[in-house]
Queue: 2 jobs
Job 1
Amino acid sequence: MHRLPLLLVLVLVARSAFAAPVVPGLDYEVLPGKFKGGPVHVLRVDLARLRIVQTDPSKVLQRSAAAFAKATSALAVANSNFYVDAAKGPPVGLLVGAGVVAQNAVRWYQPPTFTASLGFRRQDGLADAFDSLNLLHGPAPRCFTDVFTGSEWAVRGGVVPASSTSTDAGLFARHPRTVIGLSRDRRYAFVFVTQGRNVPVGAQGYTVVGAASVGHVALEYGAWDAVNLDGGGSSKLWVLALGGLKNSPTDGQERLVAYHLGVVAASTGAIPASCSDVPDGGATRDGGGLGDGGADGAAPDARGALDASGPADGLRGGDAEVQGRADGLHADEARGGRCSMSSSDDAGIDGLALLVGLGVLLVCRRLRPIRRPRRG
């Protein structure tokens, strides 16, 4: 008669070890990682409950994650876009924050590098992945209020890129990475921050392209599309309810950066009538994906952005290496992958816990109490 309580206890233990709900809609866990790259810190964000925001380009400051959180009421913070070496340095690639497009954005290297973008809309939580080749200075497709652009796709359409035509050597080297991604159904956003550079000892970090790509970790977690953001010593993950900084920065302390990613409470508002949820040839919530910028009616950029075979003088050479991370798969998604517990998963038991529970039940059914001789 003690079998059922025992089973329930083991199931609950398995669940608690799987992921820790921080607040409703926000989960945090640490993965052991792969390829000797080191631990991976992961946030899963339910976009039906929370929103992802970018630094407002009109309010750029080189600051800590805690300072950004205070300014934006963020529940969690990570670093975001690469940028030129200055306290208010221009971002690399399309950047939109609070509906404002950074008009001083530049490019590093020749495209297709720094054209991989993820967009988010604060009014309703809509999100998607798209190529921003012709959108360096906007406009943002589908009236996305917040856009993040990285050096390369870590995962694109459920596939980890096997190669890149970029001349950016950092894509092929091992470093700490920061990656933002989306689930296939676009309900969940994910932030991955990895260790590396022998912090902790033995952690080699991850590439963006190649066998040791962080994209493989992201894909196994459930990423359908994921973008490699700034990383190296800039990589950081800060969670308010968990005491602040969760990763171990390779500088020995948190690096102040100009651009941050924040997880905030959901907000609502009117969506401009000119914005279409499903533009012609565009994306749907099943992860169809937007095409490049030109496909969304935007004229090619004519501002003479910095397009060179390598970083221009003054760029942050210490972090010209790409960083990466991806996205997540909820237990109710159709594709077979890793299931993760969320505070919003009230309706059932996640896959791992269920398997543990069934295993215990089978063992219990095979056991029989030892019958001792009855003494007269």
Note: Confidence is low (pLDDT under 50) at residues 1-18, 278-288, 291-354, 360-376.
Job 2
Amino acid sequence: MKKQLGRLLYLLASPSMRALANRRLRASYSLNRGPPMAVEATVDAASLDGMWDHISGVWSGLGGNEPLWSVLTNDRYLSKENPSPETIAGFYESGRNDRDYLLAFLDRAGLTPTQFPILAEYGCGVGRATRWLASTFRNVKAFDVSAPHLAMARRRPENSGLSNVDFVHLQRRDDLARLAGIDLFFSLIVLQHNPPPVILDILNSAFAALNPGGVAFFQVPTYKEDYRFSVANYWAGAASRKSMEIHFVPQAEIFRLAEGHGLRLLEVRNDNCLGSSDNTISNTFLMRKGPWPDAQGTLENLLVGPNIELMRPRRR
């Protein structure tokens, strides 16, 4: 053990590792001077419906062929690898990390799970995080566009016995109305697989669905060098390949949408949900619906100010 630790320390201190770290640090700072992304964020209802149907079809196919890999893109979860029971157990155990990530944000904002009795998990997939959320929050509504993913989530023994979880299949864009009346919107490594107009449409529905005092906790990639999006190019490119996609939405679009729904920013941090990358930024947001408490607000309702870390990538 000591020998292995010594080798690791030697590797970390090597000139090549220091050079790699310096290159990534310089790359991360260069993004601060990057130009704006050309993103067509607002489209008509027909275009939204078409993109929604396309993404739903892609993910239903992934759910039937690669249900685990489509959630965590590690080759050991590929169907052809025939994952062992231990590997599958580890896959589902990792959902605890997502729940704990949320709890850390709530804790820093002075909030507790008991304040949010109804949680909506958007993009629950095969239920990897669902049981961990259900063990902490009173009621969980677990939404997904993929029927095969949802079928696996329902069959999972840890989920089948949960009395406080309702699995909901979103078959069309209009089904976003079923988010109504929630206290906490939760979504990690999901929104990024939708085109920017769809990401903003989902967030628009989620923000509208929040009860007063509710919070939105979600992750979205917000910057990539040379990324651009237009509906015309989308249908001619990514959409024709019918495969997993990664998209980006400028922070300004997210803040503008949140402001329109009366949400205030509590915290935003860079995350590593896109993995190790020198030319992308992904952010995790925590927002709350309603005005800031006045000076007479109770201690339970008073919150800390925004904790903002916008540009320099972090590694968890």
Note: The mean pLDDT is 87.
